[in-house]
Amino acid sequence: MTAVAEEKAPATTARLEARGVTVRFGGLVALNDVDVQVPAQSIVGLVGPNGAGKSTLFGVLSGLLKPTAGTVLMDGEDVTSASPQARARRGLARTFQHPELFSTLTVREHIVLGYRIRHAKRRLWTDLLTGGGFRRPPAAETERVDALVDALHLGGVQHSPAAGLPLGTSRLVEVARALAVDPRVLLLDEPSSGLDVRETEELAATLRQLVADHGVSLLLVEHDVPLVLGMCDRVHVLDFGICIAAGTPTEIRDDPAVRAAYLGTAVDETTEEEPA
Ligand SMILES: Nc1ncnc2c1ncn2[C@@H]1O[C@H](COP(=O)(O)OP(=O)(O)OP(=O)(O)O)[C@@H](O)[C@H]1O
Protein backbone atom coordinates (compact mmCIF):
# COMPACT_ATOMS: atom_id res chain seq x y z
CA MET A 1 0.00 0.00 0.00
CA THR A 2 1.31 3.45 -0.85
CA ALA A 3 1.93 6.27 1.58
CA VAL A 4 -0.74 8.35 -0.13
CA ALA A 5 -3.35 5.62 0.06
CA GLU A 6 -2.57 4.93 3.72
CA GLU A 7 -3.71 8.39 4.82
CA LYS A 8 -7.45 7.91 4.81
CA ALA A 9 -9.83 10.77 5.28
CA PRO A 10 -12.33 10.51 8.15
CA ALA A 11 -15.25 8.25 7.21
CA THR A 12 -17.63 11.19 6.97
CA THR A 13 -15.49 13.27 4.61
CA ALA A 14 -15.77 12.41 0.94
CA ARG A 15 -12.56 12.15 -1.02
CA LEU A 16 -14.22 14.14 -3.77
CA GLU A 17 -17.51 15.99 -3.73
CA ALA A 18 -19.60 18.16 -6.02
CA ARG A 19 -22.03 20.27 -3.99
CA GLY A 20 -24.87 22.12 -5.69
CA VAL A 21 -23.02 22.28 -9.01
CA THR A 22 -24.73 24.17 -11.82
CA VAL A 23 -23.21 24.75 -15.27
CA ARG A 24 -24.83 26.97 -17.88
CA PHE A 25 -23.65 27.21 -21.48
CA GLY A 26 -25.47 30.37 -22.57
CA GLY A 27 -29.16 29.50 -22.24
CA LEU A 28 -28.54 25.76 -21.79
CA VAL A 29 -28.43 24.37 -18.27
CA ALA A 30 -26.03 21.41 -18.63
CA LEU A 31 -26.01 20.70 -14.87
CA ASN A 32 -28.63 21.86 -12.41
CA ASP A 33 -27.75 21.84 -8.69
CA VAL A 34 -26.00 18.46 -8.79
CA ASP A 35 -24.56 16.76 -5.68
CA VAL A 36 -22.16 13.83 -5.96
CA GLN A 37 -20.00 12.32 -3.23
CA VAL A 38 -17.12 9.92 -3.74
CA PRO A 39 -16.30 8.42 -0.30
CA ALA A 40 -12.90 6.90 0.53
CA GLN A 41 -12.28 3.44 -0.89
CA SER A 42 -15.45 3.31 -2.93
CA ILE A 43 -16.59 3.00 -6.52
CA VAL A 44 -19.21 5.50 -7.64
CA GLY A 45 -20.88 5.34 -11.04
CA LEU A 46 -22.37 8.13 -13.09
CA VAL A 47 -24.85 7.12 -15.78
CA GLY A 48 -27.33 8.91 -17.97
CA PRO A 49 -28.38 9.25 -21.58
CA ASN A 50 -26.40 11.22 -24.17
CA GLY A 51 -26.27 14.90 -23.29
CA ALA A 52 -27.26 14.29 -19.64
CA GLY A 53 -24.25 16.26 -18.36
CA LYS A 54 -21.80 13.49 -17.39
CA SER A 55 -18.78 14.90 -19.25
CA THR A 56 -19.62 18.38 -17.99
CA LEU A 57 -19.55 17.10 -14.42
CA PHE A 58 -16.21 15.37 -15.08
CA GLY A 59 -14.88 18.65 -16.43
CA VAL A 60 -15.99 20.48 -13.28
CA LEU A 61 -14.55 17.83 -10.96
CA SER A 62 -11.20 17.68 -12.75
CA GLY A 63 -10.88 21.47 -12.91
CA LEU A 64 -11.18 21.92 -16.68
CA LEU A 65 -14.54 23.69 -16.31
CA LYS A 66 -15.53 26.30 -13.77
CA PRO A 67 -19.11 25.81 -12.56
CA THR A 68 -21.62 28.66 -12.82
CA ALA A 69 -22.55 27.87 -9.22
CA GLY A 70 -21.65 25.30 -6.59
CA THR A 71 -18.55 23.90 -4.97
CA VAL A 72 -16.04 21.11 -5.54
CA LEU A 73 -14.31 19.69 -2.47
CA MET A 74 -11.42 17.27 -2.05
CA ASP A 75 -11.14 15.74 1.41
CA GLY A 76 -13.44 18.49 2.65
CA GLU A 77 -11.39 21.39 1.22
CA ASP A 78 -12.83 23.75 -1.37
CA VAL A 79 -10.92 23.27 -4.66
CA THR A 80 -13.48 24.94 -6.93
CA SER A 81 -10.91 27.49 -8.11
CA ALA A 82 -7.94 25.09 -8.12
CA SER A 83 -6.32 24.22 -11.46
CA PRO A 84 -6.31 20.64 -12.80
CA GLN A 85 -2.60 20.48 -11.87
CA ALA A 86 -3.28 21.56 -8.29
CA ARG A 87 -6.01 18.92 -8.00
CA ALA A 88 -3.62 16.32 -9.43
CA ARG A 89 -1.11 17.22 -6.71
CA ARG A 90 -3.87 16.55 -4.17
CA GLY A 91 -4.32 13.08 -5.63
CA LEU A 92 -6.87 13.39 -8.43
CA ALA A 93 -6.20 11.54 -11.68
CA ARG A 94 -8.36 10.88 -14.70
CA THR A 95 -8.51 8.93 -17.92
CA PHE A 96 -10.11 10.17 -21.12
CA GLN A 97 -12.82 8.75 -23.36
CA HIS A 98 -10.22 8.59 -26.16
CA PRO A 99 -6.91 7.36 -24.72
CA GLU A 100 -4.11 9.89 -25.09
CA LEU A 101 -0.86 7.97 -25.45
CA PHE A 102 2.59 8.77 -26.88
CA SER A 103 2.80 6.70 -30.05
CA THR A 104 6.52 5.89 -29.88
CA LEU A 105 6.71 5.04 -26.17
CA THR A 106 6.15 1.44 -25.18
CA VAL A 107 3.36 0.29 -22.90
CA ARG A 108 5.83 -0.14 -20.04
CA GLU A 109 7.35 3.29 -20.60
CA HIS A 110 3.91 4.85 -20.22
CA ILE A 111 3.49 3.23 -16.82
CA VAL A 112 7.05 4.26 -15.85
CA LEU A 113 6.16 7.83 -16.85
CA GLY A 114 3.13 7.76 -14.54
CA TYR A 115 5.24 6.39 -11.70
CA ARG A 116 8.00 8.97 -12.16
CA ILE A 117 5.55 11.88 -12.37
CA ARG A 118 4.81 11.15 -8.74
CA HIS A 119 7.95 9.53 -7.41
CA ALA A 120 10.92 10.72 -9.50
CA LYS A 121 9.96 13.78 -11.52
CA ARG A 122 13.52 15.08 -11.98
CA ARG A 123 14.66 11.80 -13.37
CA LEU A 124 11.76 11.75 -15.81
CA TRP A 125 12.85 15.01 -17.40
CA THR A 126 16.60 14.31 -17.48
CA ASP A 127 15.95 10.98 -19.17
CA LEU A 128 13.63 12.49 -21.74
CA LEU A 129 15.71 15.60 -22.43
CA THR A 130 19.05 13.82 -22.75
CA GLY A 131 17.48 11.22 -25.01
CA GLY A 132 19.20 8.61 -22.87
CA GLY A 133 16.10 6.52 -22.54
CA PHE A 134 15.27 5.12 -19.15
CA ARG A 135 18.34 4.42 -17.04
CA ARG A 136 18.40 1.40 -14.77
CA PRO A 137 15.34 1.89 -12.55
CA PRO A 138 15.24 1.52 -8.76
CA ALA A 139 13.79 -1.72 -7.41
CA ALA A 140 10.66 -0.04 -6.01
CA GLU A 141 9.81 1.36 -9.43
CA THR A 142 10.34 -1.97 -11.17
CA GLU A 143 8.18 -3.71 -8.58
CA ARG A 144 5.31 -1.21 -8.90
CA VAL A 145 5.40 -1.17 -12.70
CA ASP A 146 5.53 -4.98 -12.83
CA ALA A 147 2.52 -5.13 -10.49
CA LEU A 148 0.50 -2.81 -12.72
CA VAL A 149 1.54 -4.66 -15.89
CA ASP A 150 0.29 -7.86 -14.26
CA ALA A 151 -2.87 -6.33 -12.80
CA LEU A 152 -3.96 -4.90 -16.15
CA HIS A 153 -2.86 -8.03 -18.09
CA LEU A 154 -0.38 -6.07 -20.20
CA GLY A 155 2.57 -8.51 -19.98
CA GLY A 156 2.30 -9.60 -23.60
CA VAL A 157 2.51 -6.07 -24.99
CA GLN A 158 4.59 -4.26 -22.37
CA HIS A 159 7.50 -3.71 -24.77
CA SER A 160 5.34 -2.77 -27.76
CA PRO A 161 4.95 0.88 -28.81
CA ALA A 162 1.56 2.42 -28.13
CA ALA A 163 1.03 3.12 -31.84
CA GLY A 164 -1.06 0.36 -33.34
CA LEU A 165 -2.40 -1.03 -30.08
CA PRO A 166 -6.09 -1.99 -30.18
CA LEU A 167 -8.36 0.57 -28.50
CA GLY A 168 -9.15 -1.78 -25.63
CA THR A 169 -5.47 -2.29 -24.85
CA SER A 170 -4.78 1.45 -25.10
CA ARG A 171 -7.49 1.99 -22.52
CA LEU A 172 -5.86 -0.48 -20.15
CA VAL A 173 -2.50 1.30 -20.64
CA GLU A 174 -4.13 4.60 -19.75
CA VAL A 175 -5.67 3.12 -16.61
CA ALA A 176 -2.30 1.59 -15.62
CA ARG A 177 -0.51 4.90 -16.19
CA ALA A 178 -3.10 6.78 -14.13
CA LEU A 179 -2.80 4.25 -11.28
CA ALA A 180 1.01 4.49 -11.36
CA VAL A 181 0.60 8.06 -10.07
CA ASP A 182 -0.99 6.51 -6.92
CA PRO A 183 -4.07 8.73 -6.99
CA ARG A 184 -6.52 9.01 -4.11
CA VAL A 185 -9.37 9.44 -6.59
CA LEU A 186 -9.41 8.26 -10.18
CA LEU A 187 -12.00 9.58 -12.64
CA LEU A 188 -12.61 7.02 -15.38
CA ASP A 189 -14.30 8.26 -18.56
CA GLU A 190 -16.02 5.34 -20.29
CA PRO A 191 -13.46 2.74 -19.15
CA SER A 192 -15.23 -0.16 -20.91
CA SER A 193 -15.53 1.53 -24.29
CA GLY A 194 -13.61 -0.49 -26.88
CA LEU A 195 -13.24 -3.51 -24.59
CA ASP A 196 -14.84 -6.85 -25.36
CA VAL A 197 -16.94 -8.68 -22.76
CA ARG A 198 -14.00 -10.62 -21.31
CA GLU A 199 -11.79 -7.53 -21.13
CA THR A 200 -14.61 -5.58 -19.48
CA GLU A 201 -15.07 -8.26 -16.83
CA GLU A 202 -11.31 -8.38 -16.21
CA LEU A 203 -11.10 -4.62 -15.93
CA ALA A 204 -14.01 -4.51 -13.46
CA ALA A 205 -12.38 -7.21 -11.30
CA THR A 206 -9.02 -5.41 -11.47
CA LEU A 207 -10.51 -2.10 -10.46
CA ARG A 208 -12.40 -3.63 -7.54
CA GLN A 209 -9.16 -5.28 -6.38
CA LEU A 210 -7.26 -2.00 -6.64
CA VAL A 211 -9.89 -0.25 -4.53
CA ALA A 212 -9.68 -2.99 -1.90
CA ASP A 213 -5.86 -3.19 -1.88
CA HIS A 214 -4.84 0.44 -2.31
CA GLY A 215 -7.73 2.46 -0.92
CA VAL A 216 -8.16 4.45 -4.12
CA SER A 217 -11.67 5.78 -4.87
CA LEU A 218 -13.14 5.60 -8.35
CA LEU A 219 -15.75 7.69 -10.11
CA LEU A 220 -16.70 6.31 -13.48
CA VAL A 221 -18.84 7.61 -16.29
CA GLU A 222 -20.20 4.66 -18.24
CA HIS A 223 -22.73 3.77 -20.87
CA ASP A 224 -22.50 0.09 -19.88
CA VAL A 225 -25.22 0.17 -17.22
CA PRO A 226 -24.97 -3.52 -16.22
CA LEU A 227 -21.24 -2.97 -15.62
CA VAL A 228 -21.94 0.04 -13.40
CA LEU A 229 -24.68 -1.72 -11.44
CA GLY A 230 -22.41 -4.75 -11.06
CA MET A 231 -19.30 -3.01 -9.77
CA CYS A 232 -20.28 0.26 -8.06
CA ASP A 233 -21.09 0.91 -4.41
CA ARG A 234 -23.26 3.88 -5.35
CA VAL A 235 -24.72 5.13 -8.60
CA HIS A 236 -25.93 8.58 -9.66
CA VAL A 237 -28.31 8.94 -12.57
CA LEU A 238 -28.30 12.19 -14.52
CA ASP A 239 -31.01 13.22 -16.95
CA PHE A 240 -31.06 16.61 -18.68
CA GLY A 241 -28.55 17.95 -16.15
CA ILE A 242 -30.58 16.86 -13.13
CA CYS A 243 -29.64 14.07 -10.74
CA ILE A 244 -32.85 12.05 -10.84
CA ALA A 245 -31.61 9.29 -8.54
CA ALA A 246 -28.68 8.33 -6.33
CA GLY A 247 -28.27 5.16 -4.32
CA THR A 248 -26.99 1.62 -4.23
CA PRO A 249 -27.28 -0.46 -7.41
CA THR A 250 -30.31 -2.22 -5.91
CA GLU A 251 -32.02 1.09 -5.13
CA ILE A 252 -31.27 2.35 -8.64
CA ARG A 253 -32.60 -0.85 -10.22
CA ASP A 254 -35.83 -0.52 -8.24
CA ASP A 255 -36.31 3.22 -8.76
CA PRO A 256 -39.44 3.78 -10.88
CA ALA A 257 -38.26 7.24 -11.98
CA VAL A 258 -35.01 5.79 -13.28
CA ARG A 259 -36.79 3.01 -15.09
CA ALA A 260 -39.24 5.42 -16.62
CA ALA A 261 -36.63 7.96 -17.63
CA TYR A 262 -33.79 5.85 -18.78
CA LEU A 263 -32.74 2.43 -17.63
CA GLY A 264 -35.62 0.03 -18.46
CA THR A 265 -34.13 -2.84 -20.40
CA ALA A 266 -30.58 -2.10 -19.30
CA VAL A 267 -31.61 -2.78 -15.70
CA ASP A 268 -33.54 -5.88 -16.66
CA GLU A 269 -30.44 -7.36 -18.32
CA THR A 270 -28.74 -7.65 -14.95
CA THR A 271 -31.66 -9.15 -13.09
CA GLU A 272 -33.66 -11.31 -15.46
CA GLU A 273 -32.84 -14.31 -17.58
CA GLU A 274 -32.58 -14.00 -21.35
CA PRO A 275 -35.78 -15.08 -23.11
CA ALA A 276 -35.47 -18.53 -24.68
N1 LIG B 1 -18.80 23.60 -24.37
C1 LIG B 1 -20.12 23.51 -24.52
N2 LIG B 1 -20.84 24.52 -25.04
C2 LIG B 1 -22.18 24.43 -25.17
N3 LIG B 1 -22.90 23.36 -24.82
C3 LIG B 1 -22.23 22.30 -24.30
C4 LIG B 1 -20.82 22.33 -24.13
N4 LIG B 1 -20.45 21.14 -23.58
C5 LIG B 1 -21.57 20.42 -23.43
N5 LIG B 1 -22.64 21.12 -23.86
C6 LIG B 1 -24.04 20.68 -23.82
O1 LIG B 1 -24.30 20.36 -22.46
C7 LIG B 1 -25.15 19.21 -22.37
C8 LIG B 1 -24.46 18.14 -21.56
O2 LIG B 1 -23.38 17.63 -22.36
P1 LIG B 1 -22.38 16.52 -21.81
O3 LIG B 1 -21.34 16.32 -22.87
O4 LIG B 1 -21.92 16.88 -20.46
O5 LIG B 1 -23.32 15.25 -21.72
P2 LIG B 1 -22.92 13.71 -21.56
O6 LIG B 1 -23.87 13.14 -20.57
O7 LIG B 1 -21.48 13.59 -21.25
O8 LIG B 1 -23.23 13.14 -22.99
P3 LIG B 1 -22.54 11.89 -23.78
O9 LIG B 1 -22.99 10.66 -23.08
O10 LIG B 1 -23.10 12.02 -25.15
O11 LIG B 1 -21.03 12.09 -23.73
C9 LIG B 1 -25.45 18.81 -23.81
O12 LIG B 1 -26.69 19.38 -24.17
C10 LIG B 1 -24.31 19.41 -24.61
O13 LIG B 1 -24.71 19.68 -25.93
From TrEMBL:
Key words, A-Z: ATP-binding, Nucleotide-binding, Transport
Domain of life: Bacteria
Location of the ABC transporter domain: 16-265
UniProt-listed SMART domains: AAA (SM00382)
InterPro entries documented for this protein: AAA+_ATPase, ABC_AA/LPS_Transport, ABC_transporter-like_ATP-bd, BCA_ABC_TP_C, P-loop_NTPase
Molecular-function annotations in GO: ATP binding
PANTHER family: CONSERVED COMPONENT OF ABC TRANSPORTER FOR NATURAL AMINO ACIDS-RELATED
Protein name: ABC transporter ATP-binding protein
